[in-house]
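Dear support,

I submitted the protein below through the web form. The confirmation email said the job was done, but the results page showed an empty box. After a refresh the structure appeared. I'm attaching both so you can tell me whether what I see now is the final result or a partial one.
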Amino acid sequence: MNLMNHEKHYNTLNNYYLQKFNKKVFKVSLNGGFTCPNIDGTVATGGCTFCSSMGSGDFAGNKYESLPIQFNKIKTLMHQKWADAYYIAYFQANTNTHAPLKKLKLLFEEAITLDPNIVMLSIATRPDVLPDDVVAYLSELNTRIPVQIELGLQTIHQQTSDIINRAHNLKCFDDAVKRLRSENIEVVVHIINGLPYETKEMMIDTVKHINTLDIQGIKIHMLHLMEKTKMGYDYKKNPWHILSLNEYVEITVNQILWLRKDIIIHRLTGDAPFDMLIAPEWTKKKFVVTNEIDKKLRKLNLYQGDYYEK
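What the results page shows now:
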């Protein structure tokens, strides 16, 4: 799918949803009260070292509120920016398949009925928490409403994965993608640039590996060092090199050029709560980051996938 235009030199999420649903679409982030298997001891403890004590999804709903209350609060907030839109019910916080199937069914079935204008269910999870019964249910659900699974990879490099306490290997991730795609479920991959001691070449190699998988979307994040995280504590104690804005732009542009042309780019940077952010300060200005990426691609007159080699 080629959703590039004269303004953007890559496949944008906004254009993808406009083409798919013929209308503006935004995500409503919900919190189902999940934890993670590398927090609760299922596979490890402590969680990913970059993750805050609140867990991933710091901007999701309040887990102590019902799904309808969460949905309506966030929907109302988002409508201040977009008056007319469809919705994606998005289970964002932590690992959203890390529960018995009975609980998952209750949450997901409720979520898709929260509003008649919900056009998709998006679920963020880990590759090691997709048992066969859950995949079978998601496959059936996908026949009723489009289901999108966001899978955290972060890096293909095992040494880095061990440093950040991911507690799964690359084979686990690759197998999860294959199992989901065998059921025709859309897969979006998360990666992080700037992880400790990774080089530009290592970050580009992560994208080159993703090209070999049947994935439909990617989220590229910059590492945020935050208070109340193990990585933040380690950084304060023994700092390592953090990417500058120029370095991040250079690396991300190269990743876009290596990325297969059909993959939809969902994000080119990320968010962290301002009061928790240790570094880098430049990530607070998201539009500056994306504008610099766009400017560099235009200057080079290159497009997503121009470096891709089959």
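Response: this is the final, complete result; the empty box was a page-load delay. Residues 13-300 form a domain with the TIM Barrel fold (CATH 3.20.20.70).
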